[in-house]
Design brief:
Structural class: alpha/beta
CATH topology of the largest domain: Rossmann fold
CATH class of the largest domain: Alpha Beta
Radius of gyration: 25 Å
Largest sheet: 6 strands, parallel
Shape: elongated
CATH superfamily of the largest domain: Crotonobetainyl-coa:carnitine coa-transferase, domain 1
Helix content: 25-40%
Distance between the termini: 25 Å
Order of helices and strands: EHEEEHEHEHEHHEHHEEHHHHHEHHEEHH
């Protein structure tokens, strides 16, 4: 199914990962999101699911016509097949598929793939070029390796959750499985790096890409490690502000809407104070540098809070734009889908589900010459069984029917 008109409408250049075959054995979010990114940019991603029930994401959150709307997005461009990996025959067929692939993505608990005879060592001779991407909670080594590692737990251990929320209260989580998605992005990056290295290496061998959810979130933690080691400072939660950068905060306006203001550059701060009709604060030598503004953060925030509470959000944003001060609204998804900038940047793509249109998000990054795109939404369970098993493994219709009868596929 064609994607809707978007940022790259009319371009027919090949995608950067065309010719790369990926076997995706992961379920839920981290592995499948990594596979989604690769498929979007042209890889042939063969999604392997258990017969009968499939990936649990098929039934999560908002379900229409028996399938979740989320599935239509995260399984886009993937060829969906079924295999019972708990059966000897199912594992044998999986091995055959992996032997003909460039990339394997799996996000089972460490040790499961080895137990099934599908660990990295199983392919060193039969497919030495294989890039073997492994996503788990805590990585493949270390004392926590075999612990169950859901995103919620790993976000906490990474240090990410600790700095979110308000001082003295329980840390908060974004209403997203961000640890899984960030791990999926790291896996996609690691896979592409490994493919680049493989094609440059004299032996053409692949390698293992070991991605841990907690480490992926840890990778976002900016300066918390050197600040603690070098200055003994533990970054604490700071509500709607960012520690050590002032002013950058969220303010409630007269009409009940919120705006975000980032006035933390020295000259920007002066322009912000002119916009807020507080020029004396802009010229106050105490507030001329970020260090001084940090020392007087409460005074600045009270002044900006009073300004915003006396005006509607649209008025505040217009003044910020006029004075070249970074600022913006807090959008929900309805706001995004009505915003012309989102539309013109091609941030939504349209697919058809049983004859009905459905918008799903575009996948980033944007590439000017070889962009990605959505070719079809997440498909029915086992919808590509015949194509994959006949064309790739050379099986006959009778052999495929026998596998189906035995519930191996």
């Amino acid at each position: 199914m064609p994607c809707a008109a978007g940022y790259f409408q009319g371009q027919t250049m090949s995608k950067p990962l065309e010719g790369i075959r990926v076997i995706e054995l992961g379920q839920l979010i981290a592995g499948p999101f990594s596979g989604c990114m690769l498929a979007y940019f042209g890889a042939e991603v063969i999604k392997v699911e258990p017969p009968g029930r499939g990936d649990p994401i098929r039934g999560w959150r908002e379900v229409r016509d028996g399938t979740s709307l989320w599935w239509r997005s995260i399984a886009r461009n993937k060829k969906c097949i079924t295999l019972d990996l708990k059966s000897v025959k199912g594992r044998d067929l999986a091995k055959q598929l992996i032997d003909g692939a460039d990339v394997l993505i799996e996000n089972f608990r460490p040790g499961v793939m080895e137990k099934w005879g599908l660990g990295p060592d199983a392919f060193k001779r039969s497919n030495p070029k294989l890039v073997y991407a492994r996503i788990s909670g805590y990585g493949q080594t270390g004392p926590y390796a075999k612990k169950a590692g859901f995103a919620s737990v790993c976000e906490g251990m990474s240090g990410f959750r600790y700095v979110n929320g308000y001082p003295g209260k329980a840390p908060v989580r974004p209403n997203l499985s961000i640890g899984d998605t960030i791990a999926g992005i790291h896996a996609a990056l690691g896979i592409c790096l490994a493919l680049l290295e493989r094609d440059k290496a004299d032996d053409g061998k692949g390698q293992v890409v070991d991605v841990a959810l907690y480490e992926s979130m840890y990778n976002l933690m900016e300066a918390v490690v050197p600040e603690y080691d070098g200055a003994g400072v533990i970054r604490e939660p700071s509500g709607t502000t960012v520690t050590g950068i002032v002013p950058t905060n969220t303010y409630r306006c007269r009409d009940g809407k919120y705006v975000v203001i980032g006035g933390n550059g020295d000259s920007i701060f002066q322009r912000l104070m002119i916009a807020a009709e507080l020029p004396a604060m802009g010229e106050d030598p105490r507030l001329a540098s970020n260090a001084g503004r940090v020392a007087h953060e409460q005074e600045i925030d009270q002044a900006l809070g009073a300004w915003c509470s006396s005006n509607d959000a649209a008025q505040i944003l217009a003044l910020l734009e006029e004075h070249r001060v970074p600022g913006g609204p807090l959008y929900n998804v309805e706001d995004m889908m009505q915003d012309e900038h989102f539309k013109q940047r091609g941030m939504f793509e349209q697919v058809e589900i049983n004859g009905k249109p459905l918008k799903i998000p575009a996948i980033l990054p944007k590439l000017a010459r070889t962009p990605g795109s959505t070719e079809w939404p997440g498909q029915k369970l086992g919808s590509h069984n015949r194509e994959v098993f006949s064309k790739i493994l050379g099986m006959s219709d009778a052999e495929i029917a026998a596998l189906n009868d035995k519930q191996i596929i």
